[in-house]
Design goal:
The structure holds two protein chains of two kinds. Chain A is α/β, with parallel strands linked by helices. Chain A has a single domain, classed as Rossmann fold (3-Layer(aba) Sandwich), CATH 3.40.50.150. Chain A is built from eight helices and eight strands; from the N terminus they run H-E-H-E-H-E-H-E-H-E-H-H-E-E-H-E. In chain A, strands 3-2-1-4-5-8-6-7 form an eight-stranded mixed β-sheet, sandwiched between helices. By secondary structure, chain B is of the alpha/beta class. Chain B is built from twelve helices and twelve strands. In chain B, about 35% of the residues lie in helices and about 15% in strands. Chain B folds into two domains: about 260 residues, Alpha/Beta hydrolase fold, catalytic domain (Rossmann fold); about 100 residues, Rna Polymerase Sigma Factor, Chain: A, CATH 1.10.1740. The chains are: A alpha/beta, B alpha/beta. The interface between A and B is medium-sized, with 22 and 22 residues.
Chain lengths: ~200, ~375
């Protein structure tokens, strides 16, 4: 599992063996391949980019080209044990709708996102007065897909408002896992395990 | 059709009468087929390719009637996406067609050609005949079924009706239901054939065949296989071997000349009555209707079958929206489904042409 991005590796480690998994925004299916090969999961994917879908299918994975903002509604309730949304929540047109859908089609969900309150972001905004462009968020404000930036603290509020339970959370900075203390300024990335 | 009549096709005669969706039965059905690649000792590597409306069993190699390469030469062969050094590929001429399988040009029980006495057949009848062929060949479960356009309809029908025999389904540029627009174009083609005085109510065998009508049918259909963008890029408003408009009704424009050639060439290899029967079968195709109007119910027995569906962004005959309905139904029964819309400029015909992304998807999906 060493080839996976840190947040994906964490998700791969936490997903129960043999689970039915939907990876929303699966790209070329890196996480799906690990879940299938190492954990005997029945992994399905959704991805909006046709070329990435073609690559995933060419790897023998079951991936449907679709827009999560619309096509998640096509899946029946409880069709999956686990729904995964990695680094995509902040790009969603309606993150609230998307989270509801994840927890409708999956009994539980893993959600990972970049934390906009990471101290380097804060420092950059404070000192430069401009939208930060960093290693993890490398695109200028006008061109970025990230239209709903959020922080770890925002996410906690959001979950509480919606009555979603946090079953686990993990935090990363500079590609390494860090503890949960003061995560809202220390974490570059967060992974949450959620259920209703 | 004289040439097709004189060829010694590889074919079997089905031992039992073939029951049809119409309620009629066909006796002594012949199914012509070709195979490519060796069948494994455990018979686990068979791939059945279904051909499209005007296709036939000659997928690869030289076609004995036209002398041209097989219709999916680029996809099927040793080391190609459907790799015949690994898979035993079977392709059969559909019943109702005219390349060796029983169709309207075949002799009926009275020793005369069936002509319009041939029963109206369906996509499911075509599939049923091919399953009977597999019975004769001693092949039970297929590693995969593959088809584009009408071939894709047969592939979907095969999964719905014979799930136990269908390991994987690769359906390209197709639909689970013929739309009003699809039916409309086919009706134009059929009326063109029937309006040809040489059609003679279908009883033209032994005489002059309705080539004019069939050519017009093919011309109209051919337009639906291409995209506007493709037509514009290939032909635009360019004139055919002349510098100025003729102020007459010759083929002034290249596109006219091209369509006329396509129409004429088609009449050399295809039987007009077969065109009527096969287009009718496609028009009748509605998988949801077969399952009490719910497409998901049609696929319920196939929930263990792996599906890969491919559409093309410039295909306006069988669209991405059509394919999404199939994806939706397969998701509803939790069948393992992949779907991708590939970008290609050639319209519906993209499935036959040079689209490298399709090659990768096909090879990867077949495993």
């Amino acid at each position: 599992m060493s080839k996976l991005r840190a947040d994906l590796a964490k998700i791969a480690a936490q997903v129960p063996a043999g689970a039915r998994v939907l990876d929303v925004g699966c790209g070329e299916g890196d996480l799906m391949a690990v879940l299938q090969d190492d954990k005997q999961c029945d992994a399905r994917g959704m991805e909006i980019d046709g070329e990435a879908v073609a690559e995933a299918v060419a790897r023998g994975l079951s991936v449907v080209q679709g827009d999560a903002n619309r096509d998640l509604a096509d899946y029946p309730d409880g069709a999956f044990d686990v729904a995964v949304l990695s680094q995509t929540l902040q790009t969603a047109q309606r993150p609230d709708w998307l989270l509801d859908q994840l927890l409708r089609v999956g009994r539980e969900a893993f959600v990972s996102f970049p934390n906009f309150a990471y101290w380097r972001m804060r420092l950059s905004l404070l000192t430069n007065g401009k939208m930060p462009v960093t290693r993890h968020l490398p695109v200028s404000w006008y061109a970025t897909d990230n239209i709903h930036h959020l922080t770890v603290a925002d996410f906690h509020d959001f979950l509480a408002e919606r009555g979603v339970q946090v079953k686990g959370s993990w935090f990363f900075a500079a590609g390494r896992e860090i503890g949960g203390a003061n995560a809202n300024w220390r974490a570059e990335h967060a992974v949450f395990r959620l259920s209703r | 059709m004289a040439t097709a009549q004189t060829i010694d096709f590889r074919r079997v005669t089905l031992p039992d009468p073939l029951p049809l969706d119409s309620g009629r039965e066909l006796m002594g059905v012949q199914v012509a087929y070709e195979t490519y690649g060796e069948l494994a000792a455990d018979r686990s590597n068979a791939v059945l390719i279904f051909h499209a409306l005007t296709g036939d069993q000659f997928v690869a190699g030289r076609h004995p009637v036209t002398g041209k390469p097989g219709w999916w030469e680029r996809m099927v062969g040793p080391g190609k996406p459907i790799d015949t050094s690994r898979f035993h590929v079977i392709c059969a001429n559909v019943i109702g067609s005219c390349m060796g399988s029983t169709g309207p040009a075949s002799l009926g029980p009275d020793g005369q050609p069936y002509a319009m006495g041939f029963p109206v057949i369906t996509i499911r009848d075509m599939v049923r005949a091919q399953m009977r062929l597999l019975d004769v060949l001693g092949i039970g479960t297929l590693h995969a079924v593959v088809g584009g356009s009408m071939g894709g309809m047969q592939a979907l029908s095969c999964a719905a009706n014979f799930p136990e025999r269908t390991g994987r389904v690769l359906a390209i540029a197709t639909t689970a239901r013929h739309s009003a627009q699809n039916i409309a174009f086919h009706e134009v083609g059929r009326q063109a054939v029937m309006a040809d005085p040489d059609w003679q109510g279908g009883d033209y065998y032994g005489g002059k065949s309705p080539d004019k009508g069939l050519a017009v049918a093919r011309m109209a259909a051919h337009i639906t296989y291409l995209s506007e963008q493709g037509l514009t890029e290939k032909f635009g408003r360019q004139l055919q071997e002349r510098d100025a408009k003729s102020f007459g009704f010759d083929a002034d424009f290249q596109i006219e000349s091209y369509l006329r050639y396509q129409g004429l060439a088609f009449t050399d290899r295809f039987d007009a009555n077969s065109y009527l029967y096969i287009t009718r079968a496609m028009d009748y195709f509605d998988l949801a209707d077969e399952a009490g109007d719910k497409l998901a119910d049609a696929f319920a027995p196939a929930r263990e079958t792996r599906f890969c569906l491919v559409s093309f962004d410039t295909d306006w005959l069988y669209t991405t929206a059509d394919m999404r309905e199939v994806v939706h139904a397969l998701n509803a029964v939790a069948a393992p489904v992949s779907f991708v819309e590939l970008s290609a400029p050639f319209g519906h015909d993209s499935f036959l042409l040079d689209v490298p992304a399709l090659d990768r998807v096909v090879a990867g999906f077949l495993g």
